[in-house]
Amino acid sequence: MLVKSTTRHVRIYSAEVKNNELIESENVLTLDIDPDNEFNWSEDALQKVYRKFDELVEENNGEDLNEYNLRRVGSDLEHFIRALLLGGEINYNLGARVRNYSMGLPRMESPETEGKYL
Questions:
Q1: How many Å apart are CA 37 and CA 18, to the nearest integer?
Q2: How many angstroms separate the first and last alpha carbons of the chain?
Q3: Which domain holds residue 24?
Q4: Three-state SS for 49?
Q5: Is residue 118 part of a domain?
Q6: pLDDT per residue over 57-97, tens digit each?
Q7: How confident is the model at residue 91, as a pLDDT?
Q8: Whole-prediction pTM value?
Q9: Of 110, 103, 94, nearest to 10 (Cα)?
Q10: Helix (H) or strand (E) holding 75
Q11: Does residue 44 or residue 26 have the better pLDDT?
């Protein structure tokens, strides 16, 4: 049975991708980060999310593979992505198809506002 977790910026499937198809798996989890391209990502920021995902999966090793447990992992990744945004490691993609600023309004530095956000 395919188990999945879908949040705004994270999709997790108990499946692996083969020929652009999801094939159910009890041993493999597939992570889709920011499917709507709401953010601009550096390779370093993406790798941080993948490492955090691996860490969360390892912490849940031995737990049942069910939607509840995957939702917890997905929710924790959402919080991690928000921290990356607030830390300036990623930013909103202003040319994205979807612009709802789901994690807060974008920050625009100017001489009047410099350093006043945190």
A1: 22
A2: 45
A3: 4-92
A4: helix
A5: no
A6: 999 888 888 899 999 999 999 999 999 999 999 999 988 88
A7: 92
A8: 0.84
A9: 103
A10: helix 67-86
A11: 44
98 inside domain: no
Given the DSSP bridges, would you call strands 4-6 and 15-18 parallel, antiparallel or unpaired?
Answer: unpaired
Q: In this structure, is residue 100 part of a structural domain? A: no
- Number of domains comprising the chain: 1
CA distances from 103 to 18, 37, 58, 85, 112 (A): 32, 14, 27, 8, 23
Q: Is 88 exposed, middle or buried (0-12, 13-18, 19+ CB in 10 A)?
A: exposed
pLDDT above 60 for 117 = no
3-state secondary structure of 86: helix
Handedness of CA 36, 40, 44, 45 (dihedral sign): negative
Would 42 be classed as within a structural domain? yes
Q: With 90 as the cut, is the pLDDT of residue 42 above it? A: yes
The letter for the amino acid at 65 is L
